[in-house]
Amino acid sequence: IVAATVVGFLLYLLDMDIITSAQIPYLLVMPFVYGVFVKRSNEYRDRIDYVKTEELKILREQAQNASKAKSDFLANMSHELRTPLNAILGYSEMLIEEAEDDELETYASDLAKIQSSGEHLLTLINDILDLSKIEAGKMELHIEKFEFEKHLNQIEATAKPLVEKNGNKFILESNVSIKSLKNDQTKLRQILFNMLSNAAKFTKEGTVTLSISAIEKDIKFAVTDTGIGMNEKQLGKVFDEFTQAEASTAKDYGGTGLGLPISKKMTELMGGKMEVESEEGKGTTFSITIPLGIEEVK
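and the corresponding C-alpha cells:
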C-alpha cells in the first residue's frame, strides 16, 4: 500500500510538471536520510537519559550513605554526648544546694539557670539521638511486663504539674480493667509524656484529657486538648522532623519539632499506629494504638 501510494504520488507530480524525472531519485533518498537522522537522534537521547539515570543513582547512593554515616555517628556518640552534660547537671545541683545552705541566694539563682539550660540541652540531645538511632536501625525495644495501674499513676504524677502550669485542668479517663502490659515501659512513658507536654504547651486555661480504652487485643491512649488546634495544611506536616505547624510556632511556643515524629516512629516500632485529629481554634487529639503485649523485637 505504501509503495503504491508513493508511486502514484510521484506519477501525479510528474504529470502535473511539478517535478522532473531527474529529481525522483533525490525524493526517494530523502525519507531514508530522515529515518537515519531520527534513529541517530533517538539513540543519542537514550544515551543521555541513561547517563542522567546513572548519575542520579550515584547521587542517591551518596546521599543515603551520608545520611547513614550521620545517623551511625550520632547513635554511637550517645554516651560521649550525655556523660559530660550529666556531669554538668550533677555538679550544678550540688553547687545549688551548697549555695542555699550558705544563704547565697544570688549564686543559687544563677546556678539554677545553668541547671535549667543544661536540662533543656540534654532534652534536645536525647531527641536528636533517638531520631538518629531510629534512622540507623539501632533503636531496640526492651520488653517487660509491668503493672498498668502503677504506670498510669506515674504518668499522671509527672504530667499533672506540667499541664496545670498554664492554668489547665488535667483529666484522666480510663475505661480498661487490665492489670498489666507487656511492652517497652520507658518508651511508652516517653510517647505519652510527649503527647501530654505538647497538649499542655498549646493550651492555656483549658483542659487536657488522657483517655484509655481497650480495642480487642489493642489498647488506645488518646490525649485531647482545647488549645489552638490546627488546619488541614498544618496537619499534613505535623509528623515532619524539625518542622513546626507554622513558622511563628517555634518562636511563640518553643520546641524543635522532634517530639511527635519520634513518638510516631516509636509507636510503629511497637507494632502500633499514631493518629491525629484537629480543628483550628477548637483543639487537637493525638492518639496511639498499640498491642496489649508484644514480643522482643529489634
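(Above: one complete record from the training split.) The chain has a mean pLDDT of 83.
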